[in-house]
Design a protein that fits this description.
This protein is an alpha+beta fold. It is built from seven helices and four strands, in the order ααβββαβαααα. The chain has one domain: Arc Repressor Mutant, subunit A, CATH 1.10.10. Bound molecules: zinc ion.
Length: 173
């Protein structure tokens, strides 16, 4: 078979879920919503800094600098997006630390094809919206806006999670 220069996936979705569950067990941060992501970052030895973007950095939503043990988050992003970015950067810490520092440019949740980015997004979704709790709240509220508010994420992020878990809007009505 011909080899291509395509970037390779490092983890399957179930491996990412396992990583998240192990992390929750190790830290005891299980079952709290919105998830205390800031605390988890601190427990992993990282501090988070919220930067006011300049003309040059306004397209950056976040970054992780392993050599300085810090996460950078764009202060001008909506809060729900900042929260997801923080969880996404924690994903890079847990899954991709050996791949060096990472700068995340603003993209929509669905239009990235880079496996490393997709893995960090999947990690963030698992961390902030665990499957069981998500399904429970979905049944309870039957409303994306209420579900996203409960988990502290954007409606777009909740929608992606619902689609991935095969939950259809109005399915339980
Ligand atoms: Zn990323």
């Amino acid at each position: 078979m011909a080899t291509t220069a395509q970037p390779v996936k490092n983890y399957s979705d179930s491996e990412i879920k396992e990583k998240v569950n192990q992390l929750l067990l190790d830290t005891g941060l299980d079952g709290v919503f919105p998830f205390p992501a800031e605390r988890l970052a601190n427990m992993l030895g990282y501090s988070s800094h919220y930067f006011l973007p300049s003309e040059k950095t306004r397209s950056i939503s976040g970054a992780v600098e392993h050599n300085k043990n810090r996460i950078l988050i764009n202060k001008m992003d909506p809060l729900a997006r900042q929260f997801f970015t923080l969880a996404h950067e924690i994903g890079h810490i847990v899954l991709h630390k050996n791949k060096g520092n990472k700068i995340d440019f603003r993209t929509s949740l669905t239009d990235t094809t880079d496996p490393v980015e997709l893995e960090a997004n999947q990690f963030a979704a698992e961390l902030l919206m665990p499957e069981e709790e998500f399904k429970k709240k979905w049944k309870e509220h039957k409303d994306l806006e209420l579900v996203s508010a409960y988990f502290g994420v954007s409606i777009a992020a909740a929608k992606v999670r619902a689609d991935k878990l095969n939950l259809k809007k109005g399915f339980f009505i």
